[in-house]
Specification:
Oligomer: heterodimer
Helix content of chain A: 55-70%
Shape of chain A: flat
CATH superfamily of the largest domain in chain B: Periplasmic binding protein-like II
Structural class of chain B: alpha/beta
CATH topology of one domain in chain A: MetI-like fold
Radius of gyration of chain B: 23 Å
Number of strands of chain B: 14
Number of helices of chain B: 15
Low-confidence stretches of chain A: none
CATH class of the largest domain in chain B: Alpha Beta
Mean pLDDT of chain B: 86
Structural class of chain A: alpha+beta
Number of domains of chain B: 3
Largest sheet of chain A: 4 strands, antiparallel
Number of helices of chain A: 10
Helix content of chain B: 40-55%
Strand content of chain A: 5-15%
Order of helices and strands of chain A: HHHHHEEEEEEEEHHHHH
Mean pLDDT of chain A: 86
CATH superfamily of one domain in chain A: MetI-like
Chain lengths: 359, 361
């Protein structure tokens, strides 16, 4: 009878159900992995992550922060790809936030022209699939740029051609190779010769079009989020701010945006995650992001499961990292407002301001 | 297995209809499906499965003129396509009983490993890594190729060694990438590969001038030049070949009978050319020939098909419906086609080439 009693106890019953679900999940995952493993083995498909320590044997068109050579290991290739993904994502996150903020504020502007332009921007960009936009920018870019023999040039310092945008870069260098005191900051200028353009800082057309497409597409969504946030701030707040003589900039800076930021943060995090994941469309335009590297590694080694799981782990950790960062941001910005609310609540309970307030 | 699954699925829908909102049922079904599916590919031989569904499922290129491409009516043509057709006519008696699954380069091996296709006939290079680590078998070489470069004529590049520091367009998931790197390193060229997942994107980037050169197998270059270039004459395929690329179909491991059938149909097509049996004269030969080899090939004397698990007429059907190797080559990639490829390495061994079929006897 004891058992029946347990069954009638609501919380025990719930726990039993939870245990059952976990058990079923474990059985499913376990049998799937076992099946996969035995099947791979029985068909003579080699598996394991040992390939990461082997020489990659392929080249990567562009790398960021680190150098890469075909004699480097596979894991180094994955790292180079990851850094390329991060490069696109970081530039994308910052620029699309700024652009989205501007357009979003434009959406709530009092001036009809600005409002309509912002609206057209949002509707055009968010209603066309990103892949199409990306291919369009890429094809337009390489179609209309001149070849590397006749680049657009700005004092031979900035060169724009089908090879990309070559910029001068500030570098540490010294005349005698092992003297640190002799080091000085020098500009390294792009060089043109018969083989084309060589530069230490070169933004390839693939990078430019991918970043551009991601920024435009994501900023349209961010603009709508910003607009919703701004419109959620009660009109009374703005009127109150006006009545104490704040100008438009001050109203936005000190009254509207801090309150809107609260509401904007969670959907904004979503858009940031989308942008990072969308950067995997890079393979369509030949930008060597981490997916492109994984594709190549997968083909060279045949380790499909391993390469895909590495990719999944990378995107999962990136996304978790961004979510975590955005939560930290909440803690910093919302504390002041929480305190304000608390104070408001207290003053309502104790209108005279006697007693409860601590010195 | 298939019947069992169909039964389960129909039961599943019945159950859904009768008890909406009952979650236990779909969950159990899901479990049953998951637990039973992975074993599916191992049960039964490929040949039995093909006979049962009355169709060969063949993985092909998404669009490489001359090798595997669908025309505007959705009809597939090409050398790789004809190999699949020949196998279908040998096995099922009808060259049209093939279902073509277009696959991108990174997809192809997984599709074959997972049992989605019976045979992969998609200008695939044979190599040690692929033979030894993918769980796949290489059958027989249908096309001897080598990796080359295509450049615009106006660039004045005459040799691959002039590609110093150049951006080169490549399709991902191919042996091409590695060959390019090896070549670049050996000659200190510092070539920058720009890797595209889709053939179409790589083509577009090259023809818009993003890359100084385009690299893939020389036959592929000829195909792309004839099909995609506005003016084929404005593009030059450089004479240097930087690798050996023996292309041919692949099959899954664990089914030796199917491997043998795939291999011997290809040998049969080459052997038919060697003994001058083609789709036009085969009916006459059936009644008039006295040559013992020819009689064996067309199934008039010994029954070679029986050893492969096929019937007596297997090869004669393939030749009469699809043609011998020479007919297949000339029709798809030969000198009268836009690709305009010479037989070269692909001529018979007796005519200075490399095509040497194992003897059918």
């Amino acid at each position: 009878m004891k058992i029946l009693e347990l069954w009638h106890h609501k919380r025990t019953r719930q726990r039993l159900f939870q245990c059952a679900v976990v058990l079923i999940l474990l059985v499913v995952v376990g049998s799937l992995s076992y099946n996969t493993w035995t099947n791979l083995k029985s068909r003579g498909i080699q598996s394991g992550f040992d390939f990461l320590m082997e020489n990659s044997g392929f080249d990567i068109g562009e790398h960021f922060l680190i150098s890469f050579d075909s004699s480097d290991h596979y894991w180094w290739a994955f790292l180079a790809g990851l850094l390329n993904t991060l490069k696109v994502s970081m530039v994308g996150l910052i620029c699309s936030s700024l652009l989205g903020l501007m357009v979003g504020m434009g959406r709530t502007s009092h001036q009809t022209l600005i409002r309509w332009c912002s609206r057209a921007y949002v509707e055009c960009l968010r209603n066309v699939p990103l892949l199409l936009q990306l291919l369009m920018w890429y094809v337009l870019l390489i179609e209309y740029l001149p070849s590397s023999e006749t680049p657009y040039s700005w004092f031979n310092a900035i060169l724009l051609s089908q090879e990309g945008l070559a910029l001068p870069q500030l570098m540490w260098s010294s005349n005698s190779s092992n003297d640190f005191l002799d080091m000085q900051l020098l500009w390294s200028w792009p060089i043109r010769d018969i083989y084309g353009i060589h530069s230490d800082l070169n933004l390839s057309p693939e990078f430019i079009s991918l970043t551009f497409a991601l920024i435009l597409y994501t900023s349209a969504f961010i603009a709508e989020i910003v607009r919703a946030g701004i419109e959620s701030v009660p009109k009374g707040q703005i009127e109150a701010a006006q009545s104490i003589g704040l100008n438009d900039f001050q109203i936005n800076r000190f009254v509207v945006l801090p309150q809107a930021a609260q509401l904007i943060r969670p959907p904004l995090t979503n858009q940031y995650l989308n942008l990072i994941k969308n950067s995997s469309l890079a393979v369509a335009v030949g930008y060597p992001d981490v997916v492109s590297i994984a594709n190549t590694a997968l083909n060279q080694t045949g380790r499909a499961l391993e390469c895909i799981s590495i990719l999944m782990a990378i995107y999962l950790s990136l996304s978790l990292l961004v979510s975590w960062g955005m939560n930290q941001f909440k803690d910093a910005s919302s504390i002041a407002i929480e305190k304000d609310k608390e104070r408001l609540e207290r003053s309502r309970l104790d209108p005279q301001g006697t007693g409860a307030r601590h010195a | 297995m298939k019947i069992y699954l169909t039964y389960l699925i129909s039961k599943f829908f019945d159950a859904l209809k009768s008890s909406h909102g009952n979650l236990i049922c779909p969950l159990t079904m899901f479990l049953v499906l998951i637990l039973s599916l992975p074993n599916n590919a191992l049960a039964g031989k490929t040949l039995d499965a093909i006979k049962q569904r009355d169709q060969v499922v063949c993985g092909v290129n998404t669009g490489l003129a001359g090798f595997g491409a669908a025309d505007s009516q959705g009809k597939w043509t090409g050398l790789d396509i004809d190999i699949c057709k020949a196998i279908a006519s040998a096995v099922l008696g009808n060259a049209e009983k093939v279902k073509f699954i277009p696959l991108s380069a990174p997809q192809r091996f997984t599709a074959l490993q997972s049992g989605e296709i019976d045979i992969l006939s998609r200008n695939t290079t044979f190599s040690l890594t692929r033979d030894a680590s993918l769980g796949l078998h290489q059958t027989a070489v249908t096309f001897y190729d080598g990796q080359g470069f295509m450049v615009p004529v106006k660039s004045n590049i005459k040799s691959a060694k002039q590609l110093k520091g150049a951006s080169v367009c490549v399709q991902s998931g191919t042996t091409t990438e590695k060959n390019l790197t090896d070549f670049s390193k050996a000659n200190k060229l510092d070539i920058k590969p720009i890797v595209f997942e889709k053939l179409e994107a790589a083509n577009a980037a090259y023809f818009l001038g993003r890359c100084k050169a385009y690299t893939t197998d020389a036959s592929g270059l000829a195909s792309i030049r004839s099909k995609e270039a506005k003016e084929p004459k404005e593009h030059l395929i450089l004479p240097d070949l930087i690798s050996k690329e023996p292309l041919g179909p692949m099959v899954r491991r664990g089914d030796d009978e199917w491997l043998a059938i795939s291999k011997w149909v290809i040998y049969g097509l080459i052997e038919a050319e060697e003994y001058q049996i083609n789709s036009k004269n085969i009916e006459n030969l059936k009644t008039q020939s006295t040559d013992p080899v020819v009689m064996r090939l067309i199934g008039k004397s010994e029954d070679m098909g029986k050893l492969l698990g096929l019937d007596r007429e297997w090869l004669s059907r393939a030749v009469s419906q699809v043609g011998n190797y020479a007919e297949i080559f000339d029709r798809n990639v030969g000198e009268k086609t836009p690709l305009n490829l010479k037989r070269g390495l692909n001529a018979l061994w007796s005519q200075g080439g490399l095509q040497y079929a194992m003897p059918i006897r």
